[in-house]
């Protein structure tokens, strides 16, 4: 409930505005909890492969380049086959 009277009806612009005002204060504790769980991926105790972010970046760019090369090779092969 709003401190100055009854709450605005659901779906109204006033209700949306009050939610926008309240969300940063209510979400700050949830964001802190989520960052605590994200830090578990970067600890030495986390199970699985230990790969640096740079390695992941290089591997993903390499995969994108590989798929692009395959597309170009497929287009060239299809164009030669029709001619």
UniProtKB/TrEMBL annotation:
* InterPro entries for the chain: Sec61-beta/Sbh, SecG/Sec61-beta/Sbh
Q: How does it sit in the membrane?
A: Single-pass membrane protein
Is Transmembrane among this UniProt entry's keywords? yes
Source taxon at top rank: Eukaryota
Q: Where is this region: Disordered?
A: 1-33
A GO biological process of this protein is: intracellular protein transport
Ranges annotated as spanning the membrane: 56-78
Q: Which GO terms describe its cellular component?
A: Sec61 translocon complex
- Chief localisation class: endoplasmic reticulum
The compartments listed are: Endoplasmic reticulum membrane
Q: What's the short name of a Pfam family annotated to this entry? A: Sec61_beta
Q: Which UniProt keywords apply?
A: Endoplasmic reticulum, Membrane, Protein transport, Translocation, Transmembrane, Transmembrane helix, Transport
- PANTHER family in the record, alphabetically? SEC61 SUBUNIT BETA
Family label:
Belongs to the SEC61-beta family.
What's the stated role of this polypeptide? Necessary for protein translocation in the endoplasmic reticulum.
Q: What is this protein called?
A: Protein transport protein Sec61 subunit beta
* Annotated source species: Nepenthes gracilis
């Amino acid at each position: 409930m709003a401190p100055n009277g009854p709450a605005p009806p659901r779906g109204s612009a006033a209700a949306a505005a009050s939610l926008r005002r309240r969300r940063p204060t209510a979400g700050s504790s949830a964001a802190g909890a989520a960052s605590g769980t994200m830090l578990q991926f970067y600890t030495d105790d986390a199970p699985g492969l230990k790969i640096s972010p740079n390695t992941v970046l290089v591997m993903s760019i390499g995969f994108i380049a590989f798929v692009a090369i395959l597309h170009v090779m497929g287009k060239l092969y299809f164009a030669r086959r029709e001619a």
